[in-house]
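Replying to the earlier thread about multi-chain prediction with a worked example.

Input:
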Amino acid sequence: MTQPDPEDRHDSHSAASTVADDLARLILGEMTPGTSLPSEADLATRYDVSRLTIREAVKMLEGRGLLEIARGRKALVRAPDGSAFADFLTSVIRYDAKGLFDLIEVRLSLEVQSATLAARHSTRAGVAAIESALQGMREAADGAIDLPTDAVELRFHSFDVGFHEAIALASGNRVLGYLFEAMAQPLREGFYISRRGHERRGHTIQDTIDAHQRILDCIKDGNGRAAADAMRFHLKDTERDIRAALSGRPLRTE
Amino acid sequence: MTQPDPEDRHDSHSAASTVADDLARLILGEMTPGTSLPSEADLATRYDVSRLTIREAVKMLEGRGLLEIARGRKALVRAPDGSAFADFLTSVIRYDAKGLFDLIEVRLSLEVQSATLAARHSTRAGVAAIESALQGMREAADGAIDLPTDAVELRFHSFDVGFHEAIALASGNRVLGYLFEAMAQPLREGFYISRRGHERRGHTIQDTIDAHQRILDCIKDGNGRAAADAMRFHLKDTERDIRAALSGRPLRTE
DNA sequence: TCCTCCGAGATATCAGATACCTTTTAGTAA
DNA sequence: TTACTAAAAGGTATCTGATATCTCGGAGGA
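Result:
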């Protein structure tokens, strides 16, 4: 059934796709980020196709996140980041109402692992970054206890995301960092909405800060298991917030 | 619809990127897989750019995995799959020796979760798919107990991957399935190599089959925790196999 | 009714030009 | 000699127009 089908991405019988795949192999195989590709005219003579075909191939690779193209400069090989995955995950969420919660479920697993790893072997700088994000949340909240405006909420939320991202980075596992980055964008809206459910369930901003503080304390203690538990508890609670917010009114009528 | 903004032309981004982003928003927002895009000529008049610009935009979206393009037919909106992420993960592995083990670490976490979820709520069809893959492993092994040829090993390995993929699918969480698919390709080589380390450590193919059987049994019992433990044990063991294989001789000289 | 063939429509690719941006170089003035 | 500036060189962005080839639906014949 699921036979290894190495070439199912593109039916390589178009010239542009063939060139693109060949360049991709080259880029992934033996070029480091920052290196520049030969010029379009050069590649055109090399592959014996027109410049247009080269352009299309290069545009495909730009779409795949492998190249960075700017006018007047040669194409640069790009360092990997999660953005290539982000709009894919967005589509998962949109096509399927259950997709949002599938994604949250996966994120929980990855963040719990991040917290565990961060507790076990994070550097002083890693912990400092997490602390700084939490401090930012505090300051954003201090200006908004009575009447949180949208701008303040946005600011608070942004530090909240930064807190979780700092933990993913502090895990020392780069793949976790990339995956977090890729998931953060599609989930941003959902987690922003969660604040509404948070209030509806009778919780305050201070509760949120306390939950984050507990996670940070466990990481500073180097207690991986406790950090995992604290993170799991916090995310489960956030998930309940989102469900509460969504039960009130539907997500994204647009 | 989509009346062209006059200042689009002098945006910091290129016209092709602008069109691509707009189309991406459209596709992700309100088009279902299988729907076809308007023809290139149609889009060209709509956005008031040349057909070439449309082609480049469409090629970018093909690279992002959002469209499927064939000659003579309109571009089709594509259902999401993990392939958009695969070459990104490949680059992570290549750029960094630690990347391979980072990826294995993440995979462990995701597969343990898959096993848990599969045990909790898999369908009869889902279990049947897992069983079928295991049966395939058995048959491949039966023909290769004494002298496993490369072809037989490849066959066995292919069913092995199929087993894990079936579990990811049986979890009912589609994001897990996509992530597994995206990770499978870059990891395929590593796990193929693991068989060498497996033998070096004095284990047999039967041991591998037994380990998979234990995972399957737990899933059939509906025991999520036991399935997670069995999966974790198996993957930790496989990781040791890979390390043993790599310590013998370096990976991929190419 | 079913099959075959053809034309309309769609993409694939080519060639040649122009516009504009970036980097480098050469020249000029301090 | 140094610093600043302007032009040239090399690159990408985009357009126009044309040809080749593929897909699909409909007309027409068996």
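Chain B has two domains: 6-77, 83-248.

Feel free to reuse this layout for your own posts.
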